[in-house]
Amino acid sequence: MNRDQFYKAALVISLISMVVTLVMIVMGNISSGGPFLITFLVALSIAFRGIPLLKGLAFTIFILGVSATALYYPGLFIRVNDFELALLITPLIQLIMFGTGSSMGLKDFIELSKSPKSVIVGVLAQFIIMPLLGFLLARATDFSPEISAGIILLGCAPTSVTASLFAYLAKANVALAITVTSLTTLLAPLLIPLLMKLFAGGFIEIDVLGMMWGMIKIVLLPIAAGLLFNKMLSGRAKWLDAGMPYVSMFGVALIVAIIMAAGRDSILNIGFMLLMVVLLHNVLGYFFGYWAARLCRLNERDSRTIAIATGMQNAGLVSGIAKVMGKIATVGLASAICGPIMGLTASVLASYWSGLESKQAAKNASDV
What we know:
single chain; mainly alpha; two-stranded antiparallel ribbon; 2 strands; 78% helix
C-alpha cells in the first residue's frame, strides 16, 4: 500500500466511523460510542495529512481525538500503576521550551531592530488586549473562582509557539510572528504573575514571587539552555531541528489528555459554556489584535500577523503554570479546551487570508 492509498483508506475508515457514531447518537447511546468517535477523529486526522488544503488541520483534529479519548477513558491519563501522569506536565513544558530556545538564534533578536513599531504593537496587544478580554469574560460568567482564574491566566499567556506556522500559512510576516512570540515568552515570567495579581486577585490568592520563580524554571531556564545548545552546536544538530516539532506535538497532545482527564467531571458539567467563552476569547483576540495594528498604521501583512499572534495563546504553558499552582483540574481547564479551538480557528483564518492573497495575485497577473 502506497502513501496515497493509505490516506484514502484512513478517509474511508473515518467516514464509516462517523456514520456509526451518528447512528449511536440518534439512538441515544452516545456513552457507548467512544471507540467509534475516537476512530473517526484519529483516522480523519491521518486522512487530512494527504490533502494539501486540509493538512494544516490534521494536528487539530488529532487533538480532538486525544480529547475524546481522555473524556471516555480518563483512567488512561491519570496514573500508570502508582505514577501520577500529571507529574509529566512540567518536564514536558520544559522540553518544549528547550526546543523553542534551540530553534532561536541571534538572527531572531536582530528582527527587533528592523521593525520595532510592529514588534512593540504586537507585544502590547498580547499583554493588554488578551488579559482584559479574559478578565471581562470571567466577570461576565458564573464559573467557579478557580475556573474564572484559569480564563484570566489564559489571557495573560504569551503568544503560542505555533503562531509563526499560521502566519506562514496566512502569507503574513513570519519573522514578526517569531519575534513577538520570542519576546512575549521571555517577558512572561515577569508579566504573568503581575497581571494575574491585578486581574485574578479577586478570584484566587496569587503568590506573585512563587509564580514568577515557577515560570523562570519552566520558561527562562529551558529557553536559555536551548539558546546555549544552539550556539554551541550551530548547524551540527539537524536531528534536533527535525525532531523537536514532533516532540512538541506529542508533548502538547499528552498535556491536553492529562488535563482533560483530570477535569473530566467539570468539563462534562460546564463544558459547552466554557468552550463558548474560550472560543469568544480567541476570536476577539484576532479581531482586536488586527484593528489595534491597523489603528497604529501598520501594513496589512503585519496587521494579519499581529492578529494571529494576539489571538493565539500558549495554552501548553498555561497548563504548566496550573500544575505548578496545584490546580490543574480547575485553573488548567480553559487551556485544555483552548488548544483544539485555537488550532481550528487559526487554520480557518489562515486559509481565508491565504485565499485572498492567491486571488489578488491572480488578479494582478491577469491585469498585466
